[in-house]
Amino acid sequence: MPPTFPRKRLLRAHGKSVVFARGSIESAEHVLMKAFIWALYLPDYPDLYVETRIGDKYKPDVVQMGADGKPIFWGESGQVSVKKIESLVRRFPATHFVIAKWGMKLDPVAEIVAEALDGRERRAPFDLIRFAPDSADRFIDADGNVTLTHADLEWRRF
Questions:
Q1: Cβ-proximal residues to 103 (8 Å cutoff; 6+ apart), any chain
Q2: Which domains can be identified in the chain, with CATH numbers?
C-alpha cells in the first residue's frame, strides 16, 4: 500500500523544521523522499532548502548554495533524466549530488550515473539512495520528527 502524506506537514530534524507541501499532482513518495534527503544530509549541510529555484534551468528538490553562488549540495527525488544527470555532473564538479528512489532497484540508475561520471573529474561525491516502501512509518514519528541515517538505507556512493 502506498504511503499517505497530507497536503502540508511540518517536519523536524536536527533542530530545524520545514513545512513540506504536496502539489496537486505530486506523489506522497516524492514529498517523503525530499523530506528524507533534507533530514539525512542536514548535519553536513545545515543551510539546505527544499524546492528552491537557484537560477538554473533545472530546479533541485533539495539544495544548499555556496558562497560563490553555485550549489554545493543537490538532491533529487524520483525520476531524473539521463540528460539532466549528464548536464549537472558536467557543470558542477564540486557539487555533492544525491538521487533518491522509492522502492526500486538502484542498479539501473547506478549504471547511468557511472556512465555520466566516466572520465569526469569530480571533487564531491554522488550518492544513490533507495527508500523502502515502509520508510514513512520507520523514519517519521507522530510529532513530525524525522530520524534516519545512511545505515538505515540502501546507499551507494560514487
A1: 29, 130, 131, 132, 133
A2: 8-157 (3.10.640.10)
